[in-house]
Specification:
Elements: E1 3-11, H1 14-30, E2 34-39, E3 53-59, H2 62-70, H3 72-78, E4 85-93
Antiparallel strand pairs: 1-3, 1-4, 2-3
Length: 98
């Protein structure tokens, strides 16, 4: 079953954060990740206030999604994000197609 990264990100320095956004997609691609939503218009209907950025990335499996997060390529990209943005990232397994 497919799996998804769901991230909510609040950026404190867009110029510095761009170093992350220039690197992270290559790490996702190594694991077959496909960005479904990134940035765009959003509105919180319940729960916490709307983050500046919401991101959804699809992977072919839960194992690939987790492996991508722990990979050297993503951890290197992440090092460019940590000081310039606060992120909440979860990985969720999808459901079987109906």
């Amino acid at each position: 079953m497919k799996a998804y990264w769901i991230a909510h990100v609040d950026v404190t320095d867009p110029d510095q954060y761009s170093h992350y956004t220039q690197r992270a997609p290559a790490a996702f691609a190594l694991y077959g990740g496909r960005i479904l939503a990134r940035g765009g218009r959003s509105e919180a209907m319940e729960g916490r206030q709307t983050p500046q950025r919401s991101v959804v990335i699809e992977f072919e499996s839960y194992e690939k999604a987790v492996a991508c997060y722990h990979s050297a390529a993503y951890q290197e990209a992440k090092s460019y994000r940590e000081e310039w943005a606060k992120a909440e990232i979860i990985i969720v397994e999808g459901i079987a197609p109906i």
